[in-house]
Structure formats: structure tokens, C-alpha cells
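Question thread 4412

I'm putting together a teaching handout and wanted feedback from people who do this every day. The idea is simple: show students a protein as raw sequence, then show them the C-alpha cells that encode its fold, then repeat with a second protein so they can compare. Below is the first pair exactly as I plan to print it.
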Amino acid sequence: MGNYVDKNLDNDETAKYSARVSLWKYWINFLIAGLIAAVALLGFATYLSSKSGTQSFTGPKFALITLLISLAIFAWPLVARKSTELVITSKRLIAKFGVISTQSIDIRFDRIETVRVKQSLMGRILNYGDIVVTGTGSTFDPIPNIANPMGFRAALNQALEMTPSSRERHGPRSDGPHGRDRRGAEQ
């Protein structure tokens, strides 16, 4: 677990499940960073291989700046992944994003109404997506780019079912005129 979650857990609260940001969502960052680095290295190699001693030092400066830009583009997803904490505890869902400017989501289980998963075609293939938690009062809390979002939702639903307030609130209910509970059994 991360530092934020450790500092904010209650004494009788335990972590049940943690998730990570998927790096597949950032594949374009890695591709662009690789292309820029290749151009930078090619430019530097061209400068070194030139036989003319009259060339300015502009070539290596440009190559170095371009290489640093590619490293920044490459590092951004890694920093985003490292600085994001996603934990399902025995009482609530905790999500924290950011390094310098942070955003946190802290929802007690008795305030969660629905949990949705949004996945694009690439997200389904590469197993990443967004979780959208709807709380009481129609608040929407999106948690983007989660690796294995279906597993995260299953763990959250299991944790919700284990809480006493959830069982009282979501016990057997009638789903219309047919008198079936949520499992589909006759009442």
C-alpha cells in the first residue's frame, strides 16, 4: 500500500484489495518517446560521424534536449502509476491521484449506490478501463485507467456485500411485479 492510504486507515480498518493504473493506456506515450529518442540518437550519431571539424555544437545540444523531452514523455506514465493509490478497505474505497497537486476519493461503502466499468475496444483487449462509482446524491467519482477493472469491480462488490449496512440496505428486494429477489428466486 501507499503512504496516503497507510496514513488514512482507521485502527479497525484493513486493506482488502489494491489496484494499479494500467500502462497500456499510455502506449502512445511510449511510442512517441521511442521515436523522439531514436531521432535524437540518430542526430547525435550523424554529428559524431561527420568528418568536418567546422560544425557547430548545435547538433549535440539539440540531440540532448530532444532526448530529455523523450525521457519526460516516457517517464510521465510511470510517475502517474507510482503516484496513484487505489485501495478497497473493510469500510471504504480510497483513491488518490497526483504528486504535487493531488486529488483523492474516499467513499464509505454505505454511500456507494452503483459501480460501473467503462472499457473501449482496446481496453477490453488489453484489460484496462475506467471505474465510475456513483454515490448517494448522484455524485460520480471516475477512477480512470485501472488495470483489470472487472476484477476491481468484483472486489468492490464483494466488499460491499460483506458490510452489515449494505446487507440491510440491499437485502432481498422485489424487482417488479414478478416478485423475484435479486438472485431471480421466487419470493
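The second pair follows. I'd like the answer to focus on this one:
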Amino acid sequence: MLALLSSGAPLQAATAAATPPTAPAVALPVLPAQAASVTAFLHRGWHIEQQFQADFDRDGRTDALLLLQPIQPPQPEGPPQGWSAPRRLLLLLRTADGWRLAEHNDRLLPRVDLSSQQDPMAEGEITLQPGGFRLSLGLAATIGSYQMATLRYSFAHDGQCLRLVRYERLELHRATLDTRDLAIDYLKGVVLRSQGNAQSGASQQRRERLPAKPRLCLRDLDDAARFKPM
């Protein structure tokens, strides 16, 4: 989980939290470099959780963006237990004779302890944007904390990869309704920080220049709960 606010604490007093617990390692199947069909990138025991079609590399062919997840056994009644399943994001580019795996990421969508945290995709979504897509994730504790955050990653294909062009982190304390937001435009090199209160509507903003940093591809990004955007 991201560090937000302790109950009743002023926004200025927020501090970084300890590193979140690490999910147990899972051996993931090797993906083929190319295949004749989209379903050929699926291994036994996995399914396509979400699928999107668009011409990402602007070559006139319709490509595919897949979100894959292992098929889960029926859950017993009661609160969820255990760790959320791993998820894989794949960009498949259409070729003259099939599909090519352009890049993939197995780490970005965090695995969380479902006994105390909400599945990041429960309130998350993937939406297409011109030449790319936006991934939204929700990080929220289900017990013991009022903290929650929405993370948004915007990607655009630049001819080499799906490049991260914008990052947003929207934090909310559900008891006090204090907010703290961060938005980074990697193309313009601009950082916008804001803090306020969702109930009163009060807000303060500060604009900064983004320090020089290599622009990352989808394949480069680590666990969203640990990602350092600057």
C-alpha cells in the first residue's frame, strides 16, 4: 500500500510507510515470441481477463492489448483470503503472418494480501487512448486503515515501445476526506502537486519542473505499489 495519512493527521504530516509485504514468488509460463493467433499466447490454466484492439504502432493493422490472469478456483464464502493472483499485460502487434509479442509486463499490477487489501483491479480499469492506453489501479485497505489511492498510468506507442507519458496518484483519507495528488507529464517535464479536502473543496497547488529522468517503457515498470515516479 502507498503511504497516505494516519487517522486525523494533517496532510503536511504524512510520511512514507514501510515497504509493503512481498507476495510469494510464482513461476510464470514462458511466452512465445510470435504466434499465429492471439489465443496461442495463453497457457493452460490462464484466461484473458481483458482484451483491447487498436492500431498501437500505426501501421494500418489492428493490434491487441491483453490482460492475462490464471483461472481461479471458486472462493469459499466469507472474506477473501490469500494473495491476489498475478496478472500479465501483453502488447501483441499484428504482422503479415500472425502476431508478435512486442513487450509485456508481469510486475506492474501489484499482488496484494486479500485479507486486508482490495484487489487493485476491483476499482481499476484499462481504457484505450490514441496510440496507447491508460491503466487505473485502486490501492485500498479493507481493514485497519482509512487510506486509499488511485494510480493512473498513461502509455503511448512511440515506434519503439509503449512509453509512459503520464503518471497520476490521487490519495484520499476516507475519514477526514483530506486529499493529496501528484500528476507528472513526462512529455512536458511538468510535475503538479495538490492537496486539499474533498468535502470543503479547498485546494492548494504547486507546479515544478521534472528532474531529468530516462523515460520508461511498459516493460521497465515495477510493482505499482513500489513505483517511484521521480
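Top answer:
Good format. For the second protein you could add a caption like this: The chain has one domain: 33-220. The radius of gyration is 19 Å.
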